[in-house]
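Thread title: Can someone regenerate the structure for this chain?

I was given the following input by a collaborator and told the matching structure tokens would be attached. They weren't. Posting the sequence so someone can regenerate them.
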Amino acid sequence: MPQKNISIPLHLKFLGSFLRVISNRKLVIILSFVFFISGFLIDCYLQSNKFLAPNSAVVTALGLILTIKHHYLSNIVSVITLISSDYQESQYGGSVEDYAKNEKYVNALLSKATDEGLGLVLILLGTVINAFGVYIPLVLL
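Best answer:
Regenerated them for you:
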């Protein structure tokens, strides 16, 4: 019996496209600094605590997207990638040493680890500032 070609549902394609736009590592880092600094400067100018905490919540969301992008976004390319992500080692059966010799695989793995690590840092930083941002002393501008 021939195998049917099952495609990713439209809503997953749309979701993946939307999240890929905002999951670029450099863009996320730059946006995070912009949100933190703009929130702080606006609060300093207005002498209020209205913008830094909400902006840090946005940074937390960006960090979360960066953290999950390799586990989620890379798996919603096709149904085959979704299936193989769960059964990768048992299907390919290569040893750890074989994978370690593949430079492309190692570089991709390091990139994933970097994104996930930076994402976790942004989640933690955004959460701490969101929780305690009202206690950061403001300077008079």
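The CA atoms of residues 26 and 129 lie 21 Å apart.
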